[in-house]
């Protein structure tokens, strides 16, 4: 089983876009170098974020920019835009339990109840965390940050 890194990569991208839009051209190549991944992966995520109405992408030399205020972009919005597994379903349940066994017969029901509760809690937390929060925290950590920086 592999855990998706799409959401964390998308947050990384959105931080760059939010901080640099209007001042510097934000390209998939720059974001890929910063995130340590392939530009093709970045472009796929950009397409998902664009389809979700979070960013706009100007072809050619335009780069990317936010369509919403960072305070209005939640972590759940970002996750939902780029990941195909819903928050409520990110913990899977094995499907081949024996109906002849009381444990196997009931495990799906027991876990579904618990996992639904967990999913709702995660859903609530992800709704409360915004891109603005990440931007503010980054500015606390890197107060001198201004412009694109790679070394």
From TrEMBL:
Entries under SUPFAM superfamilies matching the protein: Winged helix' DNA-binding domain
A Pfam family per the record: Rrf2
Gene Ontology MF, one: DNA-binding transcription factor activity
Coiled coil: none
Superkingdom of the source species: Bacteria
Single GO cellular component term: cytosol
Listed name of the protein: Rrf2 family transcriptional regulator
């Amino acid at each position: 089983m592999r855990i998706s890194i799409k959401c964390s990569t998308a947050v990384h991208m959105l931080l760059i876009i939010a901080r640099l839009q209007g001042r510097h051209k934000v390209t998939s190549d720059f974001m890929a170098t910063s995130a340590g991944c392939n530009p093709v992966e970045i472009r796929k995520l950009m397409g998902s974020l664009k389809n979700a109405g979070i960013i706009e992408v100007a072809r050619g030399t335009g780069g990317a920019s936010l369509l919403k205020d960072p305070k209005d972009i939640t972590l759940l919005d970002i996750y939902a835009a780029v990941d195909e597994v819903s928050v409520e379903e990110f913990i899977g349940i094995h499907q081949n339990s024996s109906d002849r066994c009381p444990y196997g017969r009931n495990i799906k029901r027991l876990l579904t109840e618990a996992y639904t509760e967990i999913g709702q809690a995660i859903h609530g937390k992800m709704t409360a965390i915004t891109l603005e929060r990440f931007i503010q925290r980054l500015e606390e950590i890197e107060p001198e940050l201004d412009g694109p920086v790679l070394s």
